[in-house]
Each structure stands twice: as structure tokens, then as C-alpha cells.
Amino acid sequence: MADLIYLDNNATTRVADEVLAAMTPFYREHYGNPHAIHSLGRRSHDAVEAARADLATLLDCDAGEVIFTSCGTEGNAIVIRGLIDRHPDRRKVVSTTVEHPSVLTLLRALEREQLIELDLVPVDREGLIDMERMSAAIDDDTLLVSVMLAQNETGVLHPVARIAELAHAAGALVHVDAVQAAGKVPVSQRDLDADFITISGHKFHAPKGIGALTIRRGIALQPLWYGGGQELGMRSGTEAVPSIVGLAAAARAAREALPNYDRVRALRDRLEREIRARVADTSVNGATQPRIGNTASIAFHDTQADEIVRALDAEGICVSAGAACHSGSVEPSSTMKAMGKPLREAMGVVRFSLSRYTTSEEIDRTVDVASGVLQTARIA
Ligand code: PLP
């Protein structure tokens, strides 16, 4: 069989060679605790601080505003929980119906516990946030507005800077889940005017288990746990030095590769164009919106996405299904439901997510195989 074609990069990415090379010495040679005062400790400390500076460059903020976390889910929780615990008196949180579960299920749990009043602003069929509703939702009681920059299923980019303007005018703070945006579009704390930005290494060729969070200088959060006081006291526990070094190497590589990201976008556009030309009754979710360049969310009408994913997998192509199986029955994704997609479209949504390693030949083969698979699926 031909080599594996990996088009599930929004789920996770392969660790880049230069990232692994940067990490390796920190397992075997420079393994000191960054808080130890001997030379091995100082070597680790210097590496962590250099990494912090690299992350600050990627996210256009000060190094003193960056902390390292284990993943995007943790970064989101540190902000949301930490802020609510710190401000029990001001409890309204505004977010959207298409956030990642690490935000949405947390907010819903806090609402159930009556710790917050939650207002989820809807999106339209193209994934566009209803800005009139957003503007009406943000008021003087609002503590936090939490909005993702790039939607993980469709890639749609949200107008975060405009939302931050509305939030700050009302005295609310702004959290941006930029997990799917980092490495695919510029993510600037200054331009977005974000108080908190979450990113996760494994989405841009760093290892799993490492992420970063920016906390704007002067904003206090209640830590989720206590201990040695590492990472501004926000994330106690000995730093994962090799992973932090890997995250920094991935951040540098992503920044360098960003000017060439149009190549990925062109491949994605071709994939969508050719699949639509060759497969009847298909549509592209969020196509009319500004989107990150690597994501194609394609609805194959009147099909079952999980069957298509399995058929592509049998041909060595890894993609993911929007619809997922919950307790025996297949359900459309909550994002497709939130976008109001009819069931006949939502059940057949397949996400193709490219990376800077995706080749033109891989796209050609994916188009060929997908057209064949769809023909078989529709005849069957
Ligand atoms: N936020 C978004 C938009 C995501 O897509 C994901 C993961 O898919 C997360 C948060 C969670 O990130 P992690 O897997 O690093 O916890």
C-alpha cells in the first residue's frame, strides 16, 4: 500500500524533526531541575526562560506573561476556573455555542453549580458569530468573554479583536482559545487585545502534553492547585523542560513557516474544489468565512461520515468524522448542530486537516480515493 496520508492535523500533528532534536539533550544531558542552583539546574532554567521568550515572540506579548501548561484543556481551565474563583461576586460569562468542549463543558458545569451565569452566543449556518447578540450579551455584569480564534471543525476565524473591543468597553476580560490558530495564522496578544491566550503544542508539531498560556500582566487568577509556586504560582509542579524546549522549537519553526502558509491554503482549496467537482451533493462548511488555511470541513450529503472515514482509512488516508457515536447511535457534532445544519448534511461531515508537510501528490491521491469511496458508499 502507498505511504500513509495524514490529514487529521487538527486532531494532532507529528513531532517535527527539529523539535525532537532540540528536546533530546534535555532528557539525557541537561536534566537538572530548573530551580536547582547547581550548573545542571541553571542550564535547565536558562532553557526554560529562552523558551518563554520564543513563545512571547510567537504570541506577541512579554515573556513575563507566558506560563507553560500541559495542554489546551488545562490552559482554558486555568483561566476560566481561576477567574471565577477570584471574582465570586461578578459571575457572568459570555461565550459561543461552537467552543471546544474544554471550554463549553466547563462553562456548563460551572453554570450547573450556579457559580456563573452563562450566555452562549449562537452562530449562523456558516459559523459566523451573531455579533448583534454578542454585543447585547456583554454588559456591566460580565466578568469574562471566552471566544476561540479558529474553530476546530470548520477552521472559521472569529472576529476576536472586535469582540475584545466590546468586552473591554464593558470592563470584562477576554480569553482567546487559539489552540487551532497558532502556527496557521498570526496570533498576537497585542493585535487581538486579549487578556489570556491558550495554545497547545501538539497542534503545531510539538509533543503532546505541553502547552502555553498568556496572562496579561497585572491580572490575578486563583491557581487550580498549589505547590512549589512555579510558573508565576499559576502552575506548580516541576517544569517539563524537554517538552518546553520542544514547544519553543515548534514555535520558532511555525513562525518561520507562516509566510509560506499560502501553499497549504492552496492545497486545501484544491482539495475542496476537486472533491466538489467530482462528488455530487457536497458542500463546504464555513467556506464563505475567513478560515485558517489547512481545514476543509466537507459535508457529503445523505452519507454517514464514520463509514467514509473507515473507507478512507482502509486506503491509508487518515481524516476525521464530524459525527460521532454516542451510546450506540451516531450523532452529528455539536458544532454542526450549533450551525443549524440539516441532518442529511451534518451526518456526513468529514474533516480534512492539512499540515505544512502535506504534499500535492497526497492531495491528488486523496481526491481520487475520496471520489471512489463516495461512489461506492452512495451505490451501496
Ligand atoms: N481548544 C481547541 C479549539 C481545540 O481544538 C482543542 C483540541 O482539539 C483544545 C482546545 C484542547 O487542546 P488539548 O488537546 O491540548 O487539551
Description:
The chain is an alpha/beta fold and 380 residues long. Helices cover 40% and strands 16% of the residues. The chain has helices spanning 17-23, 25-28, 39-59, 72-86, 101-112, 131-137, 160-169, 189-192, 241-257, 262-278, 305-314, 334-338, 343-346, 360-379, and strands at residues 5-6, 66-69, 92-96, 117-121, 142-148, 173-177, 196-200, 211-215, 282-284, 295-300, 317-318, 320-321, 324-326, 329-331, 349-353. Strands 2-8-7-6-5-3-4 form a 7-stranded mixed beta sheet, sandwiched between helices. The longest helix has 21 residues, at 39-59. Residues 71-73, 100, 102, 148, 152, 177, 179-180, 200, 211 line the site of pyridoxal-5'-phosphate.
